[in-house]
Amino acid sequence: MSHERNITRLDAFTYRELIKNDPIMLIPAGAVEQHGPHMPLGVDMMLSTKMAELVAENIDALVSPTVTTGYKSQQRSGGGNHIVGSFGFDAATVIGICRTFVQEFARHGFKRIAFVNGHYENYQFIYEGVDLALRDLAGRSMPQVMLLSYWDFVTEEVISRLYPDGFPGWDVEHGGVMETSLMLEYFPDLVRMERVMDLPAADLPLYDLLPVDPTLTPESGCLSSAREASAEKGRILAGSIVSGIVDALRSRFMV
Ligand code: ZN
Ligand code: MN
User: Fold this and answer.
1) Which among 204, 144, 148 has a CA at the least distance from the CA of 174?
2) Which residue among 136, 143, 167, 200 is least packed, with the fewest CB closer than 10 Å?
3) Percent of the chain's residues with pLDDT above 70
4) How far is the CA of 1 from the centre of ligand 1 (A)?
5) How far apart are alpha carbons 60 and 143 in whole angstroms?
6) How far apart are alpha carbons 235 and 221 in whole angstroms?
7) Cβ-contact 150, 122 below 8 angstroms
8) Please, how many CA atoms are within 13 Å of residue 12, restricted to the half-sphere of its CB?
9) Ligand 2 centroid to 136 CA: how many Å?
């Protein structure tokens, strides 16, 4: 039997056969968004999918088609949706897609579903999509759904090891050390370190302003510098992320 975990690469007959084992379905949620001059637009969709696939290998789970219609980039976490290269979908779109995925996987017979988010701004809209899907399913057999953002599983120990000069926070990690290191580890051909703009971390105000003031976003479009990124750091980060997510799924979904 195939070891392929991503159902977009499986045929329907194999998929239906695998469902009989009652696997967990992992739904990666990303975005198509600018990540500075050194990384491609697909970082969030690629990394959420990769993290989900690595988790799936450990627990015999399956991986869903990736949600690539991310919510609008916010200036204080993704540079802002005014930047050409970022695709910002309305909340209703993101909610509707997540709601449909939960409904469809429930119809396919899944009892345990987890969203693996890789785009900061998506989280509350995934939450709403799940909540509405479960409300739709009330009274019928209802799956359990876990929601998480993968960076939350990087341990404090790894953070202090990888950011000896102080951790800037996951919100300003956009296009910074974490995402760039993970990309160097898993998609090295898509990273151009010689193009990194080594600027100080963005100094953003404690409020949002609409329309945005574009001058608040660093010229790179990244909110912190990726200069210290490396594939080695990517390996350490992924190890922490994957084992943390596996533990969470085991503790909630597998007795
Ligand atoms: Zn990103
Ligand atoms: Mn993002």
Assistant:
1) 204
2) 200
3) 99
4) 34
5) 18
6) 25
7) no
8) 1
9) 29
